[in-house]
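Format notes (please read before filing issues)

Several people have asked whether sequences and structure tokens are stored in separate files. They are not. Every record keeps both together, in the order shown below: the sequence lines, then the token lines. Line labels are part of the format and must not be stripped during preprocessing.
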Amino acid sequence: MVETLPHIVWIARPDGYHVYFNQQWMDFTGRSLEESLGEGWNPPFHPADRPRARHLWAQATQTGEPYDIEYRLRRHDGVYRWMLGRAQPLRNEAGEIVKWFGTCTDIEEMRAALEEAAALREKLEHRASHDSLTGLANRELLFEQMELMFSQRGHGGIAVAFLDLDRFKAVNDSFGHRVGDELLAHVADRLRAGVRQGDVAARVGGDEFVVVGEVDDPVDARRFGQRVVAAVQGPVSLKGEQVDVAASVGVTYVERGGRPDIDLVLSRADDRMYEVKRRRYADE
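Then the structure lines:
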């Protein structure tokens, strides 16, 4: 009956010595029955999987517990395929193991489908939490990260820098929205390169960005805002045109350990940014 099964089937003694393989094993591995008996089942395993397979099999024969394992098995043409191996002890009326019955099932396509589904799910989750144009965090992810950072206790506090590009409308009017989008992508790249590990950079509106990070005190928060502006400023070439990128930033300092209203925190940083922008334009 086992010869008609679509799976590889094997039988072993209670001590783990393999005494039988069906034709599926021979057809798949290209090994003869004589070559496969005893420990002969191990060579077709992928070198990286052999020690684990040998260990789990030895453990199963010692404990008498069923086991399963995913591993790569070399086909007769040299190609490795992912397999699911399972072993079940068969006992007599006294409860003693009289033999082991095992199967190997090809799961290559199933694993590929699961990996593809996982990659798609990760991609969709990323799209749901990131801005589609710049790849930065979107408002929803920003709020989640801010809540987490505010709730953590420790030294210092959190700086929230609200950044707005200066004269961005003029870029759109002069060169078109496609060039404007390209400029926003450049600014996002500069932010990614300029922020520290652990900081959060997000796009929250047309040409508005927020960067959140840990600081020591309000003075350090101001320096944080200056670093954010310095990271994005400077000329950039767009469609053969040289565009000078400038930005205004407003910074709010928040003590750790509290749960402030995030909308209010962003609103304060936004107001301070517009104060900076108004003063700059008034001086020109």
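For reference, the curators noted about this record: Residues 2-112 form a domain with the Beta-Lactamase fold (CATH 3.30.450.20). The chain has two domains: 2-112, 131-283.
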